[in-house]
Amino acid sequence: MSTVSAADTIIHSGRIATLDRGRPLVSAVAVRAGRVLAVGDLEDLSEHRDDSTKLIDADGRTVVPGLNDSHLHIVRGGLNYNMELRWDDVPSLSDAMGMLARQAERTPPPQWVRVIGGWSEFQFAERRMPTLDEVNAAAPDTPVFILHLKTMRCSTGRRSGHSGTPATRQTRPAGRSSAAPAANRQVC
Predict the structure, then answer these.
(1) Same structural domain for residues 106 and 22?
(2) End residue of a domain, out of 23, 39, 63
(3) pLDDT tens digits for 36-60?
(4) Across the chain, which distance is largest between two alpha carbons, in Å?
């Protein structure tokens, strides 16, 4: 009786990256329940194969186990993590402006604070966007960019998931009124 586990899947005939410096590339990998059982060539993995094992021919393509990118912007996130602010589930504009003020204090010049994420003006008790006056009061000397990611109807009639507004000193040369809502312009 064998104690070797049968693989759910064996991917073969590929360039399989193992991330092992001693053996960085192999031609086959055996997987069971989402975990790598063994690597090598197809012959090496024969003990992990039974009638229920699914064989996938990689046809010479490269396979990198373990990477699952669901639209993460990983490089941007890594470079800007300490300068980004998320307002998801923040209950009021007062709380959001307090978070913005604290983030502006931490953000080194000349970097911008970037408000990102899936927040909505309707989550705030005030049920509105912040005004430029509110943003400028929270971050008077730090540039701020507020990104709004909710779906809305644009003036072109199509739907957009993004709108963004620069605030503080970046809006003054453009002649924007500080009394206008901070996120009143859509980019479609």
Answers:
(1) no
(2) 63
(3) 999 999 999 999 999 999 999 999 9
(4) 80
